[in-house]
Amino acid sequence: MTVLPDDFLDNTLRARRKLVEAILEKGMGPSIDCDLVRSSYLLSPMVATYGSAGLNIAPFMVSYLVKESCMAEALEKLRDIERKYWGKGFEAVKAGLSFVLDYVYNEDCVDPLAMVSHVMTKGHTWRNIIETGEATLGILIPPDVAAYEIRTTAQIVEQGSIYEYVNLVHDLMHVIPEGERSHPWYPAVVFRVREIYDNSYQKLGSRIYP
Ligand SMILES: Cc1cc2nc3c(=O)[nH]c(=O)nc-3n(C[C@H](O)[C@H](O)[C@H](O)COP(=O)(O)O)c2cc1C
């Protein structure tokens, strides 16, 4: 298997890791807020699909799947955080961020070729993915650091370890700290990377993977 280019990993997975490290080190504040805004497209890429719902594009919060060899341990850790930190505010956020560093942004554990999200509504994206099994993710690193077009095979997953993993990772930040189930679990979607193009003005759409 071709290895993902270092530049690409630096601008995506490793940049996300640095952001989490900075939040743990400095806490939230104006400088982190600014970094978060700058990272919007990295954390929530635009997802383009096609099918009977039309040619569509919508932002989705995206994370990464861990490798199968890490999945059982990661799930156990997630369940443990839920048990110990339910409703514990920033303590829960810190436990969640540490999990993310130990598993999701740990290159020994993560599968950077498997990106994940969840689908909160059976709208255009859901319908198109069910029909075609394809999606392209667009990531811009502003102002013009990088721009990636990530072509994927997309699959909706409604049960099993991937479904549990995606929903628990989402709960880490959006449910466990508050201690209130503000929304149900949703179908997961796995984007398996097939091709990556560098759409920066220097590379003008060159393929960088595979
Ligand atoms: C920053 C941002 C992140 C979003 N993340 C998600 C997400 O993770 N899952 C989801 O179902 N919708 C998410 N949405 C909403 C979708 O983009 C979209 O509104 C919804 O899926 C319906 O669009 P569609 O019918 O084109 O699929 C997000 C919206 C924004 C602005």
Description:
With 210 residues, the protein is α+β, with helices and mostly antiparallel strands. The chain has one domain (6-209): Electron Transport, Fmn-binding Protein, Chain A (Pnp Oxidase, Chain A, Roll). It is built from 8 helices and 8 strands; from the N terminus they run ααααβββααβαββαββ. It has helices spanning 6-11, 13-26, 30-38, 40-43, 68-85, 89-104, 124-132, 161-174, and strands at 46-49, 56-59, 63-66, 110-118, 134-141, 146-157, 188-198, 206-209. Strands 1, 2, 3, 4, 5, 6, 7 and 8 form an 8-stranded antiparallel β-sheet that branches. A hairpin with a 7-residue loop joins strand 7 (188-198) and strand 8. The longest helix is centred in the middle third of the chain and has 18 residues, at 68-85. Flavin mononucleotide (FMN) binds at residues 44, 56, 58-61, 117-121, 123-125. Flavin mononucleotide binds at residues 44, 56, 58-61, 117-121, 123-125.
The major β-sheet equals: 8 strands, antiparallel
CATH class: Mainly Beta
Which fold name corresponds to the CATH topology? Pnp Oxidase, Chain A
Q: Please give the alpha-carbon distance between the first and last residues.
A: 8 Å
Instruction: Tell me the name of the CATH homologous superfamily.
Output: Electron Transport, Fmn-binding Protein, Chain A
- Total count of strands: 8
Quick one: overall form?
globular
Bound compounds = flavin mononucleotide
Briefly characterize the structure.
The protein is 43% helix and 27% strand.
